Amino acid sequence: xxxxxxxxxxxxxxxxxxxxxxxxxxxxxxxxxxxxxxxxxxxxxxxxxxxxxxxxxxxxxxxxxxxxxxxxxxxxxxxxxxxxxxxxxxxxxxxxxxxxxxxxxxxxxxxxxxxxxxxxxxxxxxxxxxxxxxxxxxxxxxxxxxxxxxxxxxxxxxxxxxxxxxxxxxxxxxxxxxxxxxxxxxxxxxxxxxxxxxxxxxxxxxxxxxxxxxxxxxxxxxxxxxxxxx
Amino acid sequence: xxxxxxxxxxxxxxxxxxxxxxxxxxxxxxxxxxxxxxxxxxxxxxxxxxxxxxxxxxxxxxxxxxxxxxxxxxxxxxxxxxxxxxxxxxxxxxxxxxxxxxxxxxxxxxxxxxxxxxxxxxxxxxxxxxxxxxxxxxxxxxxxxxxxxxxxxxxxxxxxxxxxxxxxxxxxxxxxxxxxxxxxxxxxxxxxxxxxxxxxxxxxxxxxxxxxxxxxxxxxxxxxxxxxxx
DNA sequence: GGCTTGGGTGAATAATTTGTGAATTAGGGG
DNA sequence: CCCCTAATTCACAAATTATTCACCCAAGCC
Lengths: 230, 230
Prior knowledge:
The structure is a homodimer. Helix content of chain A is 39%, strand content 24%. The first copy, chain A, has helices at 12-24, 35-45, 61-71, 87-93, 106-119, 156-166, 175-183, 192-205; strands at 4-8, 28-32, 49-53, 76-81, 98-102, 130-133, 136-139, 144-147, 150-152, 173-174, 212-217, 221-226. A 5-stranded parallel β-sheet of chain A has the order 2-1-3-4-5, sandwiched between helices. A 4-stranded antiparallel β-sheet of chain A has the order 6-7-8-9, with helices on one face. In chain A, helix 4 links the parallel strand 4 (76-81) and strand 5 (98-102). The two termini of chain A are 42 Å apart. In chain A, 29% of the residues are buried. The A-B interface holds A 85, 88-89, 92, 98-99, 108, 111-112, 115, 119, 132, 137, 139, 141-144, 146, 149-151, 153, 155-157 and B 43, 67, 70-71, 170-172, 174, 176-177, 180, 185-186, 188, 217-220, 223, 225, 227, 230. Chain A binds a DNA duplex through residues 155-158, 189-190, 192-193, 195-199, 216, 218-219.
Protein backbone atom coordinates (compact mmCIF):
# COMPACT_ATOMS: atom_id res chain seq x y z
CA UNK A 1 0.00 0.00 0.00
CA UNK A 2 1.25 3.46 -0.80
CA UNK A 3 2.28 5.81 1.97
CA UNK A 4 -0.44 8.40 2.65
CA UNK A 5 0.50 12.05 2.99
CA UNK A 6 -1.84 14.81 4.11
CA UNK A 7 -0.99 18.28 2.83
CA UNK A 8 -2.37 21.18 4.85
CA UNK A 9 -1.57 24.33 2.90
CA UNK A 10 -3.72 27.29 1.90
CA UNK A 11 -1.62 28.50 -1.01
CA UNK A 12 -3.19 26.73 -3.98
CA UNK A 13 -0.04 26.72 -6.07
CA UNK A 14 2.16 25.19 -3.44
CA UNK A 15 -0.49 22.67 -2.49
CA UNK A 16 -0.96 21.62 -6.09
CA UNK A 17 2.77 21.33 -6.68
CA UNK A 18 3.23 19.13 -3.63
CA UNK A 19 0.21 17.09 -4.58
CA UNK A 20 1.42 16.41 -8.13
CA UNK A 21 4.98 15.75 -7.18
CA UNK A 22 4.22 13.39 -4.34
CA UNK A 23 1.67 11.46 -6.38
CA UNK A 24 4.27 11.06 -9.07
CA UNK A 25 6.65 9.70 -6.45
CA UNK A 26 4.13 7.09 -5.49
CA UNK A 27 2.48 8.63 -2.44
CA UNK A 28 -1.23 8.86 -1.94
CA UNK A 29 -2.12 12.44 -1.04
CA UNK A 30 -4.99 14.60 0.12
CA UNK A 31 -5.05 18.38 0.41
CA UNK A 32 -6.72 20.55 3.04
CA UNK A 33 -6.82 24.31 2.48
CA UNK A 34 -7.40 25.42 6.06
CA UNK A 35 -6.65 24.24 9.54
CA UNK A 36 -10.17 23.08 10.34
CA UNK A 37 -10.40 20.93 7.22
CA UNK A 38 -6.91 19.75 8.03
CA UNK A 39 -7.98 18.25 11.32
CA UNK A 40 -11.11 16.75 9.74
CA UNK A 41 -9.17 15.15 6.94
CA UNK A 42 -6.57 13.89 9.35
CA UNK A 43 -9.27 11.92 11.16
CA UNK A 44 -10.86 10.47 8.03
CA UNK A 45 -7.83 10.00 5.79
CA UNK A 46 -5.51 8.68 8.50
CA UNK A 47 -2.30 9.66 6.78
CA UNK A 48 1.14 8.23 7.54
CA UNK A 49 2.65 11.70 7.48
CA UNK A 50 1.47 15.32 7.48
CA UNK A 51 2.91 18.35 5.72
CA UNK A 52 1.62 21.28 7.73
CA UNK A 53 1.81 24.97 6.92
CA UNK A 54 1.98 27.31 9.90
CA UNK A 55 0.06 30.25 8.53
CA UNK A 56 -3.43 28.94 7.82
CA UNK A 57 -6.96 30.30 7.79
CA UNK A 58 -9.50 29.19 10.41
CA UNK A 59 -6.97 27.42 12.60
CA UNK A 60 -3.20 27.92 12.51
CA UNK A 61 -0.62 25.19 12.15
CA UNK A 62 0.31 25.12 15.82
CA UNK A 63 -3.24 24.43 16.82
CA UNK A 64 -3.62 21.75 14.18
CA UNK A 65 -0.43 20.14 15.41
CA UNK A 66 -1.71 20.21 18.96
CA UNK A 67 -5.00 18.59 17.94
CA UNK A 68 -3.17 15.88 16.07
CA UNK A 69 -0.87 15.22 19.01
CA UNK A 70 -3.82 14.79 21.36
CA UNK A 71 -4.53 11.47 19.77
CA UNK A 72 -1.71 10.47 17.39
CA UNK A 73 2.01 10.53 17.01
CA UNK A 74 1.86 10.58 13.23
CA UNK A 75 4.97 12.35 11.92
CA UNK A 76 4.44 16.00 11.03
CA UNK A 77 6.68 18.23 8.96
CA UNK A 78 6.04 21.93 9.35
CA UNK A 79 6.22 24.31 6.40
CA UNK A 80 7.24 27.84 7.17
CA UNK A 81 8.11 31.03 5.38
CA UNK A 82 11.59 32.40 5.70
CA UNK A 83 11.82 34.66 8.72
CA UNK A 84 9.50 32.58 10.84
CA UNK A 85 12.47 30.38 11.55
CA UNK A 86 12.70 31.36 15.15
CA UNK A 87 9.55 29.28 15.52
CA UNK A 88 11.54 26.23 14.72
CA UNK A 89 12.54 25.38 18.24
CA UNK A 90 9.07 25.82 19.66
CA UNK A 91 7.69 23.80 16.75
CA UNK A 92 9.93 20.87 17.46
CA UNK A 93 9.18 21.19 21.15
CA UNK A 94 5.51 20.97 20.42
CA UNK A 95 5.98 17.70 18.64
CA UNK A 96 6.76 18.49 15.03
CA UNK A 97 9.23 16.04 13.50
CA UNK A 98 10.92 18.31 11.06
CA UNK A 99 10.81 21.68 9.48
CA UNK A 100 11.06 22.95 5.91
CA UNK A 101 11.59 26.58 5.01
CA UNK A 102 9.80 28.03 1.98
CA UNK A 103 10.64 28.36 -0.78
CA UNK A 104 11.74 24.76 -1.03
CA UNK A 105 12.71 22.39 -3.76
CA UNK A 106 10.66 19.31 -4.35
CA UNK A 107 13.71 17.12 -4.03
CA UNK A 108 14.31 18.58 -0.61
CA UNK A 109 10.77 17.83 0.48
CA UNK A 110 11.07 14.29 -0.73
CA UNK A 111 14.38 13.77 1.04
CA UNK A 112 12.95 15.03 4.30
CA UNK A 113 9.84 12.94 4.03
CA UNK A 114 11.98 9.87 3.58
CA UNK A 115 14.28 10.92 6.40
CA UNK A 116 11.40 11.42 8.80
CA UNK A 117 9.73 8.17 7.83
CA UNK A 118 12.96 6.31 8.30
CA UNK A 119 13.59 7.98 11.62
CA UNK A 120 10.12 7.19 12.90
CA UNK A 121 10.34 3.66 11.59
CA UNK A 122 7.61 4.01 8.99
CA UNK A 123 9.84 3.02 6.14
CA UNK A 124 12.23 0.24 5.33
CA UNK A 125 15.69 0.98 4.02
CA UNK A 126 15.78 1.42 0.29
CA UNK A 127 17.96 -1.00 -1.61
CA UNK A 128 21.09 0.31 -3.19
CA UNK A 129 20.86 2.18 -6.45
CA UNK A 130 23.33 0.20 -8.44
CA UNK A 131 23.19 -1.36 -11.88
CA UNK A 132 25.74 -3.67 -13.46
CA UNK A 133 26.19 -4.71 -17.05
CA UNK A 134 29.09 -6.12 -18.97
CA UNK A 135 32.10 -3.95 -18.09
CA UNK A 136 29.80 -1.28 -16.74
CA UNK A 137 28.67 -0.34 -13.27
CA UNK A 138 26.37 2.58 -12.62
CA UNK A 139 26.19 3.42 -8.95
CA UNK A 140 23.90 6.22 -7.82
CA UNK A 141 24.79 5.76 -4.16
CA UNK A 142 28.36 6.76 -4.74
CA UNK A 143 27.57 8.66 -7.91
CA UNK A 144 30.21 6.85 -9.83
CA UNK A 145 30.48 5.22 -13.17
CA UNK A 146 32.84 2.27 -13.55
CA UNK A 147 33.99 1.24 -16.98
CA UNK A 148 36.12 -1.88 -16.90
CA UNK A 149 36.44 -1.31 -13.19
CA UNK A 150 37.88 2.14 -13.76
CA UNK A 151 36.16 5.19 -12.40
CA UNK A 152 35.09 7.60 -15.07
CA UNK A 153 34.35 11.10 -13.92
CA UNK A 154 30.76 11.82 -14.79
CA UNK A 155 28.63 14.82 -13.88
CA UNK A 156 25.44 14.17 -11.91
CA UNK A 157 22.90 14.87 -14.64
CA UNK A 158 24.64 12.59 -17.06
CA UNK A 159 24.82 9.82 -14.54
CA UNK A 160 21.20 10.20 -13.56
CA UNK A 161 20.20 10.06 -17.18
CA UNK A 162 22.23 6.95 -17.82
CA UNK A 163 20.90 5.32 -14.69
CA UNK A 164 17.36 6.09 -15.67
CA UNK A 165 17.75 4.63 -19.13
CA UNK A 166 19.65 1.61 -17.89
CA UNK A 167 17.18 0.83 -15.16
CA UNK A 168 14.71 -0.15 -17.87
CA UNK A 169 16.89 -1.77 -20.47
CA UNK A 170 15.50 -1.85 -24.00
CA UNK A 171 12.66 0.43 -23.13
CA UNK A 172 12.43 3.53 -25.26
CA UNK A 173 12.04 6.89 -23.56
CA UNK A 174 10.97 10.01 -25.43
CA UNK A 175 12.93 13.17 -24.80
CA UNK A 176 10.02 14.64 -22.92
CA UNK A 177 9.73 11.61 -20.70
CA UNK A 178 13.39 11.88 -19.84
CA UNK A 179 13.05 15.59 -19.20
CA UNK A 180 10.14 14.87 -16.86
CA UNK A 181 11.65 11.94 -15.10
CA UNK A 182 15.28 12.94 -14.83
CA UNK A 183 15.13 16.71 -14.82
CA UNK A 184 11.82 16.93 -12.99
CA UNK A 185 8.35 17.70 -14.26
CA UNK A 186 8.79 21.35 -13.40
CA UNK A 187 11.70 21.72 -15.73
CA UNK A 188 11.14 23.80 -18.83
CA UNK A 189 13.80 23.40 -21.36
CA UNK A 190 14.61 22.41 -24.85
CA UNK A 191 14.59 18.74 -25.57
CA UNK A 192 17.88 19.17 -27.36
CA UNK A 193 19.37 19.19 -23.92
CA UNK A 194 18.81 15.46 -23.78
CA UNK A 195 20.67 14.94 -27.04
CA UNK A 196 23.69 16.75 -25.74
CA UNK A 197 23.80 14.65 -22.62
CA UNK A 198 23.42 11.50 -24.66
CA UNK A 199 26.33 12.57 -26.77
CA UNK A 200 28.54 13.18 -23.77
CA UNK A 201 27.63 9.80 -22.36
CA UNK A 202 28.37 8.11 -25.67
CA UNK A 203 31.83 9.62 -25.68
CA UNK A 204 32.51 8.06 -22.30
CA UNK A 205 31.08 4.67 -23.24
CA UNK A 206 32.28 4.33 -26.79
CA UNK A 207 33.52 0.89 -27.71
CA UNK A 208 33.43 -0.42 -24.18
CA UNK A 209 31.23 -3.39 -24.84
CA UNK A 210 29.12 -4.83 -27.61
CA UNK A 211 26.65 -6.16 -25.09
CA UNK A 212 24.83 -2.87 -24.74
CA UNK A 213 24.61 0.62 -26.20
CA UNK A 214 22.74 3.89 -26.07
CA UNK A 215 20.56 3.66 -29.10
CA UNK A 216 18.57 6.31 -30.89
CA UNK A 217 15.10 5.27 -31.91
CA UNK A 218 14.49 7.57 -34.79
CA UNK A 219 11.53 9.84 -34.39
CA UNK A 220 10.87 8.52 -30.90
CA UNK A 221 13.70 8.82 -28.40
CA UNK A 222 16.49 6.85 -26.80
CA UNK A 223 16.99 3.54 -25.12
CA UNK A 224 19.68 1.56 -23.33
CA UNK A 225 19.78 -1.51 -25.54
CA UNK A 226 20.94 -4.85 -24.20
CA UNK A 227 22.20 -7.85 -26.11
CA UNK A 228 24.91 -8.42 -28.71
CA UNK A 229 25.06 -5.71 -31.33
CA UNK A 230 23.47 -6.54 -34.64
CA UNK B 1 16.51 -12.79 5.72
CA UNK B 2 18.94 -15.65 5.40
CA UNK B 3 22.58 -15.02 4.58
CA UNK B 4 23.25 -15.69 0.90
CA UNK B 5 26.27 -17.73 -0.11
CA UNK B 6 27.48 -18.20 -3.65
CA UNK B 7 29.41 -21.41 -4.32
CA UNK B 8 31.72 -21.37 -7.33
CA UNK B 9 33.05 -24.88 -7.73
CA UNK B 10 33.29 -27.17 -10.75
CA UNK B 11 33.49 -30.47 -8.93
CA UNK B 12 29.87 -31.58 -8.77
CA UNK B 13 30.29 -33.66 -5.63
CA UNK B 14 31.90 -30.93 -3.59
CA UNK B 15 29.46 -28.33 -4.86
CA UNK B 16 26.49 -30.51 -3.98
CA UNK B 17 27.88 -31.27 -0.57
CA UNK B 18 28.45 -27.61 0.26
CA UNK B 19 25.06 -26.73 -1.14
CA UNK B 20 23.18 -29.27 0.97
CA UNK B 21 25.11 -28.64 4.11
CA UNK B 22 24.84 -24.86 4.01
CA UNK B 23 21.13 -24.95 3.19
CA UNK B 24 20.65 -27.18 6.17
CA UNK B 25 22.48 -24.61 8.27
CA UNK B 26 20.07 -21.92 7.19
CA UNK B 27 21.98 -20.23 4.38
CA UNK B 28 20.51 -19.47 1.01
CA UNK B 29 22.88 -20.82 -1.64
CA UNK B 30 23.45 -20.81 -5.38
CA UNK B 31 26.02 -22.83 -7.29
CA UNK B 32 28.06 -21.85 -10.34
CA UNK B 33 30.09 -24.50 -12.11
CA UNK B 34 32.53 -22.25 -13.91
CA UNK B 35 34.13 -18.86 -13.47
CA UNK B 36 32.05 -17.09 -16.07
CA UNK B 37 28.79 -18.28 -14.56
CA UNK B 38 30.26 -17.38 -11.19
CA UNK B 39 30.63 -13.74 -12.11
CA UNK B 40 27.18 -13.68 -13.69
CA UNK B 41 25.55 -15.22 -10.66
CA UNK B 42 27.44 -12.90 -8.40
CA UNK B 43 25.81 -9.92 -10.10
CA UNK B 44 22.31 -11.30 -10.09
CA UNK B 45 22.28 -13.21 -6.81
CA UNK B 46 24.18 -10.59 -4.83
CA UNK B 47 25.45 -12.95 -2.17
CA UNK B 48 26.73 -11.95 1.25
CA UNK B 49 29.70 -14.27 0.89
CA UNK B 50 31.42 -16.27 -1.84
CA UNK B 51 33.12 -19.67 -1.67
CA UNK B 52 35.46 -19.65 -4.62
CA UNK B 53 37.46 -22.51 -6.05
CA UNK B 54 40.75 -21.60 -7.70
CA UNK B 55 40.88 -24.20 -10.44
CA UNK B 56 37.87 -23.49 -12.62
CA UNK B 57 36.94 -23.84 -16.26
CA UNK B 58 36.36 -20.76 -18.45
CA UNK B 59 37.76 -18.29 -15.92
CA UNK B 60 39.94 -19.16 -12.99
CA UNK B 61 39.32 -18.18 -9.39
CA UNK B 62 41.82 -15.35 -9.35
CA UNK B 63 40.12 -13.66 -12.27
CA UNK B 64 36.72 -14.12 -10.71
CA UNK B 65 38.01 -12.59 -7.50
CA UNK B 66 39.38 -9.64 -9.40
CA UNK B 67 36.07 -9.08 -11.17
CA UNK B 68 34.22 -9.18 -7.90
CA UNK B 69 36.64 -6.74 -6.28
CA UNK B 70 36.12 -4.26 -9.08
CA UNK B 71 32.74 -3.46 -7.70
CA UNK B 72 32.19 -5.13 -4.35
CA UNK B 73 33.90 -5.93 -1.12
CA UNK B 74 31.76 -8.97 -0.48
CA UNK B 75 33.79 -11.45 1.57
CA UNK B 76 35.37 -14.24 -0.43
CA UNK B 77 36.78 -17.52 0.88
CA UNK B 78 39.07 -19.32 -1.56
CA UNK B 79 39.00 -23.09 -1.88
CA UNK B 80 42.22 -24.75 -2.89
CA UNK B 81 43.68 -28.21 -3.31
CA UNK B 82 46.57 -29.32 -1.14
CA UNK B 83 49.82 -28.25 -2.74
CA UNK B 84 48.49 -25.00 -4.10
CA UNK B 85 49.01 -23.49 -0.71
CA UNK B 86 51.82 -21.27 -1.86
CA UNK B 87 49.08 -19.30 -3.57
CA UNK B 88 47.77 -18.38 -0.20
CA UNK B 89 49.72 -15.22 0.29
CA UNK B 90 48.96 -13.81 -3.13
CA UNK B 91 45.32 -14.73 -2.69
CA UNK B 92 44.98 -12.79 0.47
CA UNK B 93 46.83 -9.93 -1.11
CA UNK B 94 44.38 -9.86 -3.95
CA UNK B 95 41.50 -9.36 -1.61
CA UNK B 96 40.42 -12.81 -0.50
CA UNK B 97 39.24 -12.92 3.08
CA UNK B 98 40.17 -16.47 3.97
CA UNK B 99 41.44 -19.73 2.62
CA UNK B 100 40.35 -23.33 3.01
CA UNK B 101 42.43 -26.31 1.86
CA UNK B 102 40.71 -29.34 0.34
CA UNK B 103 39.81 -31.84 1.49
CA UNK B 104 37.92 -30.09 4.24
CA UNK B 105 35.34 -30.92 6.79
CA UNK B 106 32.00 -29.23 6.65
CA UNK B 107 32.36 -28.04 10.21
CA UNK B 108 35.54 -26.30 9.25
CA UNK B 109 33.82 -24.50 6.41
CA UNK B 110 31.02 -23.39 8.63
CA UNK B 111 33.39 -22.09 11.26
CA UNK B 112 35.33 -20.08 8.73
CA UNK B 113 32.19 -18.63 7.18
CA UNK B 114 31.07 -17.39 10.55
CA UNK B 115 34.51 -16.06 11.35
CA UNK B 116 34.73 -14.12 8.11
CA UNK B 117 31.22 -12.75 8.41
CA UNK B 118 31.93 -11.61 11.92
CA UNK B 119 35.18 -10.04 10.87
CA UNK B 120 33.67 -8.17 7.92
CA UNK B 121 30.68 -6.99 9.87
CA UNK B 122 28.13 -9.19 8.11
CA UNK B 123 27.20 -10.63 11.45
CA UNK B 124 26.22 -9.01 14.71
CA UNK B 125 28.98 -7.97 17.01
CA UNK B 126 29.31 -5.31 19.67
CA UNK B 127 31.26 -2.67 17.90
CA UNK B 128 33.44 0.13 19.04
CA UNK B 129 33.22 3.38 17.21
CA UNK B 130 36.48 3.07 15.46
CA UNK B 131 37.34 3.07 11.79
CA UNK B 132 40.67 2.33 10.19
CA UNK B 133 41.93 2.97 6.73
CA UNK B 134 45.35 3.22 5.23
CA UNK B 135 47.38 5.45 7.57
CA UNK B 136 44.21 6.70 9.17
CA UNK B 137 42.36 5.82 12.34
CA UNK B 138 39.19 7.56 13.37
CA UNK B 139 38.19 6.76 16.91
CA UNK B 140 34.93 8.19 18.21
CA UNK B 141 35.27 6.48 21.56
CA UNK B 142 38.32 8.50 22.45
CA UNK B 143 37.59 11.29 19.97
CA UNK B 144 40.99 10.85 18.44
CA UNK B 145 42.25 11.06 14.92
CA UNK B 146 45.45 9.23 14.10
CA UNK B 147 47.34 10.00 10.95
CA UNK B 148 50.33 7.75 10.40
CA UNK B 149 49.96 6.76 14.02
CA UNK B 150 50.33 10.37 15.08
CA UNK B 151 47.57 12.08 16.96
CA UNK B 152 46.15 15.05 15.15
CA UNK B 153 44.18 17.47 17.21
CA UNK B 154 40.70 17.60 15.77
CA UNK B 155 37.62 19.36 17.09
CA UNK B 156 34.59 17.17 17.83
CA UNK B 157 32.34 18.31 14.99
CA UNK B 158 35.02 17.74 12.44
CA UNK B 159 35.71 14.30 13.78
CA UNK B 160 32.06 13.37 13.85
CA UNK B 161 31.66 14.51 10.29
CA UNK B 162 34.65 12.52 9.15
CA UNK B 163 33.48 9.48 11.06
CA UNK B 164 30.05 9.71 9.53
CA UNK B 165 31.35 9.97 6.01
CA UNK B 166 33.92 7.25 6.52
CA UNK B 167 31.45 4.86 8.06
CA UNK B 168 29.83 4.49 4.66
CA UNK B 169 32.77 4.69 2.31
CA UNK B 170 31.98 5.77 -1.23
CA UNK B 171 28.45 6.66 -0.39
CA UNK B 172 27.54 10.22 -1.23
CA UNK B 173 25.86 12.36 1.39
CA UNK B 174 24.12 15.59 0.56
CA UNK B 175 24.83 18.59 2.76
CA UNK B 176 21.37 18.37 4.20
CA UNK B 177 21.78 14.73 5.03
CA UNK B 178 24.99 15.53 6.82
CA UNK B 179 23.40 18.39 8.71
CA UNK B 180 20.57 16.08 9.70
CA UNK B 181 22.71 13.14 10.64
CA UNK B 182 25.77 14.78 12.16
CA UNK B 183 24.42 18.03 13.54
CA UNK B 184 21.00 16.61 14.33
CA UNK B 185 17.75 16.96 12.44
CA UNK B 186 16.76 19.87 14.63
CA UNK B 187 19.77 21.85 13.62
CA UNK B 188 18.99 24.92 11.62
CA UNK B 189 21.88 26.29 9.74
CA UNK B 190 23.43 27.06 6.46
CA UNK B 191 24.78 24.19 4.46
CA UNK B 192 27.97 26.20 3.84
CA UNK B 193 28.86 25.06 7.31
CA UNK B 194 29.49 21.61 5.96
CA UNK B 195 31.84 22.97 3.32
CA UNK B 196 33.94 24.74 5.88
CA UNK B 197 34.33 21.64 8.00
CA UNK B 198 35.24 19.63 4.94
CA UNK B 199 37.90 22.17 4.11
CA UNK B 200 39.38 21.97 7.59
CA UNK B 201 39.42 18.20 7.44
CA UNK B 202 41.09 18.27 4.07
CA UNK B 203 43.85 20.45 5.44
CA UNK B 204 44.52 17.86 8.10
CA UNK B 205 44.39 14.92 5.74
CA UNK B 206 46.07 16.34 2.69
CA UNK B 207 48.49 13.97 1.00
CA UNK B 208 48.34 11.35 3.71
CA UNK B 209 47.31 8.49 1.49
CA UNK B 210 46.18 7.87 -2.03
CA UNK B 211 43.92 5.07 -0.88
CA UNK B 212 41.16 7.39 0.18
CA UNK B 213 40.03 11.00 0.00
CA UNK B 214 37.23 13.36 0.80
CA UNK B 215 35.66 13.90 -2.55
CA UNK B 216 33.19 16.45 -3.73
CA UNK B 217 30.44 15.12 -5.92
CA UNK B 218 29.49 18.18 -7.82
CA UNK B 219 25.86 19.11 -7.51
CA UNK B 220 25.26 16.39 -4.96
CA UNK B 221 27.46 16.42 -1.89
CA UNK B 222 30.51 14.77 -0.39
CA UNK B 223 31.82 11.27 0.09
CA UNK B 224 34.72 9.45 1.64
CA UNK B 225 36.09 7.70 -1.38
CA UNK B 226 38.05 4.49 -1.09
CA UNK B 227 40.41 2.99 -3.60
CA UNK B 228 43.45 4.23 -5.43
CA UNK B 229 43.06 7.74 -6.75
CA UNK B 230 42.07 7.96 -10.38
C1' DG C 1 37.31 39.20 33.62
C1' DG C 2 40.34 38.24 29.69
C1' DC C 3 41.96 34.50 26.65
C1' DT C 4 41.71 30.54 23.76
C1' DT C 5 39.35 27.43 20.85
C1' DG C 6 35.64 25.50 18.37
C1' DG C 7 31.86 26.44 15.49
C1' DG C 8 29.36 29.03 12.26
C1' DT C 9 28.39 33.01 8.75
C1' DG C 10 28.66 35.97 4.69
C1' DA C 11 30.77 37.36 0.76
C1' DA C 12 34.25 37.23 -2.81
C1' DT C 13 36.36 34.00 -5.91
C1' DA C 14 36.97 29.95 -8.45
C1' DA C 15 35.53 25.93 -10.78
C1' DT C 16 32.10 23.02 -13.34
C1' DT C 17 28.26 21.79 -15.18
C1' DT C 18 24.50 22.61 -17.95
C1' DG C 19 21.87 24.74 -21.61
C1' DT C 20 21.44 26.92 -26.18
C1' DG C 21 21.94 28.39 -31.08
C1' DA C 22 23.45 27.24 -35.25
C1' DA C 23 25.72 24.44 -38.49
C1' DT C 24 26.04 19.66 -40.13
C1' DT C 25 24.86 15.06 -40.94
C1' DA C 26 21.75 11.22 -41.26
C1' DG C 27 17.16 8.99 -41.96
C1' DG C 28 12.74 7.95 -44.17
C1' DG C 29 8.80 8.65 -47.16
C1' DG C 30 7.13 9.58 -51.52
C1' DC D 1 16.67 10.21 -55.65
C1' DC D 2 15.08 14.33 -53.35
C1' DC D 3 13.21 16.73 -49.64
C1' DC D 4 11.93 17.39 -45.09
C1' DT D 5 12.47 16.30 -40.53
C1' DA D 6 15.17 14.62 -36.86
C1' DA D 7 19.51 13.84 -34.75
C1' DT D 8 24.30 15.04 -33.92
C1' DT D 9 27.75 17.95 -32.93
C1' DC D 10 30.36 22.12 -31.65
C1' DA D 11 31.58 26.07 -29.35
C1' DC D 12 30.16 29.30 -26.13
C1' DA D 13 27.36 31.62 -22.63
C1' DA D 14 24.98 31.31 -18.49
C1' DA D 15 23.83 29.34 -14.34
C1' DT D 16 24.99 26.76 -10.51
C1' DT D 17 27.82 25.15 -7.10
C1' DA D 18 32.10 24.76 -4.46
C1' DT D 19 36.05 26.82 -2.16
C1' DT D 20 38.13 29.87 0.49
C1' DC D 21 38.91 33.82 3.53
C1' DA D 22 38.22 36.79 7.19
C1' DC D 23 35.64 37.48 10.93
C1' DC D 24 32.19 36.92 14.76
C1' DC D 25 30.12 34.67 18.65
C1' DA D 26 29.86 31.64 22.50
C1' DA D 27 31.59 28.36 25.72
C1' DG D 28 35.15 26.79 28.57
C1' DC D 29 39.38 27.84 31.13
C1' DC D 30 42.76 29.98 33.49
